[in-house]
Amino acid sequence: MNVSLPLPALSPDELAHSEQLVQRIRDAIEAAGGWISFERFMEMALYEPGLGYYSAGATKLGSEGDFVTAPEISPLFSRCLANQCVQVLDTVNGGHILELGAGSGVMAADVLSELDRQQKTPERYLILEVSADLRERQRALLQRRLPHLMDRIEWLDRLPDEFRGVLLANEVLDALPIQRFRIRGLQVNQLGVTWELGRLDWSEVHADAALEATVREIEFNLGEPFADGYTSEINLRLSQWIAGIAASMKQGAAFFIDYGLPRRQYYAANRSAGTMLCHFRHRFHDDPLINVGVQDIGAWVDFTAVAEAAIAAGMSVAGYTTQAHFLIGTGIEQFLAPTNDEELAARLQMARQAMLLTLPGEMGERFKVIGLAKGIELPLRGFSVRDLAASL
């Protein structure tokens, strides 16, 4: 197991919570005949009502949580996103902004604040959030920071039937449940979870038809088979998920920001253990079967799969680039320009934040942005500096 630092012990409350969810998963394993797919395990670990990591009430983001996202690091990130939103909203003559999985609500607050400053406030700011606890945290933050805009903010349980405008999704794709596979000789195996000797444990079975066909298609596209023992991930739900967004969006653009790679790099021979990572109190490791329900589980994104799913659903790929180039294209330098009323300490802090967001060794290259468009054709600001779409 790869661990960045020793993992802290669970508190009594965390331990009780985790044990309750483990029992729920154990019941599911027994009901399924002794084995469930990793996809099903991940779905329960993250989203089981009242118990899953994203469904329960613990703090997840920021210094007191398990990880920090770009909007938590600096409002610069969201202000740049706001500039990109302005371009799209102007093109479609108004419309809404829809954010998927708004976390603490910081990104929504900073995007809306910048749009309000520019007098470009959207007709509605919609938030699709599955966690009741996070909804309340978002509502409290937005009420405190933007009370005059609360009548424009609406929480949704599902995608709207019709939508025109901008969709934003920061670190959402990595949390979609994935299938894990392992090559055993000439066979594709599916990794799953069982209950052995009083604990959750890994178990392999021959992959089902859908997973095996997808693995073989990837091998064909790469031009060579995976080596014996090669282990990685595939999101078999992605196509349907993107198709739902495409059906909902009548005109506009969607922006997905996440850590990931084009397929050829994602499934490179030297990445033979996959990309899945767990986060717990700012430590990372690769064992999702511990700390169940109180740690995050995610996997890097195959952005080629995102592009293929979008095209199949009737959308176009408007661009693909690193987070650093996207932020430069959307005007991060304008927010770094000194003003007369700004103190030196504040300028230095903002400069440090910009470095965290853009440097290759930080988030600048590890995180990518893909833009998907429907019903519009224009060069989007975020991809004007460097567009890597050809690498997909």
UniProtKB/TrEMBL annotation:
Cited Pfam families: Methyltransf_28
Coiled coil start-end: none
GO terms for MF: protein-arginine omega-N symmetric methyltransferase activity
Domain of life: Bacteria
Record keywords, A-Z: Methyltransferase, Transferase
One GO term (biological process): methylation
This protein's record includes keyword Transferase: yes
Keyword Nucleus: no
PANTHER family the UniProt entry points to: PROTEIN ARGININE METHYLTRANSFERASE NDUFAF7, MITOCHONDRIAL
Protein name (database record): SAM-dependent methyltransferase
Organism: Steroidobacter agaridevorans
